[in-house]
Amino acid sequence: MAIFQQSSLNEGVRPREVFGWAMYDFANSGYTTVVLTAVFSAYFVGVVAGNAEWATFAWTATLAFSAVLVMLLAPAIGALGDALGAKKRLLALATIGCVITTAGLAFAQTGSVALAVVLIVLSNFFFSIGESLISAFLPELSRQEALGKVSGWGWSFGYFGGMLALGLSLAYVLSAKAGGASATEFVPVTMLITAGIYAVAVLPTFLFLRERAQPRGIHAVASGMRGSLGRLRETWHAARRLQDFFRLLLCGTCYHAGIAVVIALAAIYAQEAMKFTEIETMTLIFTVNIAAAAGAFTFGYAQDRVGHKVALAVTLVGWIVMTLLAGLGTTRGIFWVAATLAGLCMGSSQSAGRAMIGVLAPRERVGEFYGLWTLAVRLASIIGPMTYGAITWITVGNHRLAIVSTGAFFVAGLLLLHAVDMKRGREVALKY
């Protein structure tokens, strides 16, 4: 556990506990890598929906509906975890739900659109809730000055988990295709591989991670269990009073909208615009994950030195360059460069955002405010892909214009980030 330096951790936190925390990112990353990005997204469009004209829009609409559920419920679930001192128990329920529904995707075949839609909605919901809850443990584990580094440990571990799930899936697909198997035969097995890795790799999290939050009494529990819409309004108004947190929330919504396009539509873009085969697409995403792991780990250290804000700004500039290369480049070589740059920026920008929330959120309501951050990310996952889908629909399949337009989200995020004052925001959060 030498990688998890004791000097970066809060008093009473042991390195193995941080290892357990980071292993959750390792465990659940196979879901986004295999299900949402590399395999099932293209399978849904080309096989389940029969490559119908509405197929890509149906995929983005399915993810959007799931995101709406997360937006409505994540802040309330985060508040409930804080009030009951039960973040770990809620995390276990979300994990079990995601594993079961991911395995259920193995039953999606040609024409079973309704089944696939329901399972994607549920699995993405459980995944997102788990992601929010595990993030809320970060300030409990890391010293304030090392939040970026510790967050980077988790994100880099996560990409190695994604590579494991995708690598095993790719090995199986190569073997199955060599034997003459079709997509309806080998894609279901990749769903079972992904669910199995999630279920096994998450065990260290529940063995080593401690629940430090203390129940705050019956009134706090009742508050945590209010109706989701009422709780959402209360959390929203609280965030509005924290000026810099609120600006970061808007910034995160913008740049995550662009990231959501890459996650949800990378395989579709590769196959539709660049004419990649299924195996080429999986190999591409595998390479992107290597770059993402390196980016998350390296930038985790860098952002603690140069500051979270500067580190995030650098990655947003990288995203802007990536969209231009991907949309305007006409050769596969340029597209590979764009994809690698996307990987480097993806891990680091997500890690930086998570660390910045840890700085700007009030200590006693950290789970609730991470739930609000999850809401912003989910809102972004609606805006980004749906905008991309609308552009391709209006332009009769112009994926290049759609990906270049995605750069506007990163430009907006960069402008909003400029207005965030981390020192002022931290001082306000400590007094809240």
Any overview of this molecule?
The chain has 432 residues and is mainly α. The chain has one domain: MFS general substrate transporter like domains (Growth Hormone, Chain: A, Up-down Bundle). Helix content is 81%, strand content 0%. The protein is built from 18 helices and no strands. It has helices spanning 15-38, 40-48, 55-84, 87-104, 113-135, 138-141, 147-178, 183-201, 203-208, 218-224, 228-240, 243-272, 278-306, 308-328, 332-360, 366-394, 399-417, 422-431. Helix 3 (55-84) packs across helix 11. The longest helix is centred in the middle third of the chain and has 32 residues, at 147-178. The radius of gyration is 20 Å and the shape is globular. The two termini are 36 Å apart. The relative contact order is 0.16.
What would the keywords be for this entry?
single chain, 432 residues, mainly alpha, Growth Hormone, Chain: A, globular
Question: How is the secondary structure organized here?
Answer:
Layout: H1 15-38, H2 40-48, H3 55-84, H4 87-104, H5 113-135, H6 138-141, H7 147-178, H8 183-201, H9 203-208, H10 218-224, H11 228-240, H12 243-272, H13 278-306, H14 308-328, H15 332-360, H16 366-394, H17 399-417, H18 422-431
- Which residues form runs of ≥5 with pLDDT under 50? none
CATH architecture: Up-down Bundle
Helix content: over 70%
- CATH H-level name... which superfamily? MFS general substrate transporter like domains
| Alpha-beta content class | mainly alpha
The CATH topology turns out to be Growth Hormone, Chain: A
Tally of strands: 0
Q: Alpha-carbon distance between the termini?
A: 36 Å
Kindly report the average pLDDT value. Answer: 85
Could you state the order of secondary-structure elements as H and E?
A: HHHHHHHHHHHHHHHHHH
Beta-strand level of the residues, as a percent range?
Answer: under 5%
